[in-house]
Amino acid sequence: MSQAPYYDPGSARVYFWVSVDGVAVSASIDKATLHYRYHPTSGTDDPLSTYTSNATVIDEAVRTRLAAGAREPVMLRDPDISARR
Hints:
Layout: E1 6-8, E2 13-20, E3 23-30, H1 31-38, H2 47-53, H3 55-67, E4 74-76
Parallel strand pairs: 3-4
Antiparallel strand pairs: 1-2, 2-3
């Protein structure tokens, strides 16, 4: 992507871009969502590092939301990346 993902402490969100059919789509995910999905027992997880480590799954969640009719910017929520049952 043209811009690297980044964490904004003011909004407590990681902002990132996903390529969809060659177009960069902006998206974000909340720090708490990342924490409770990927590091629920840790008190020191880094949101940007967590996003980067799980970008493939998170980016696919953005594509799924877009396919379901979401519009840019896509703001992922807990159910978008909940553990598969």
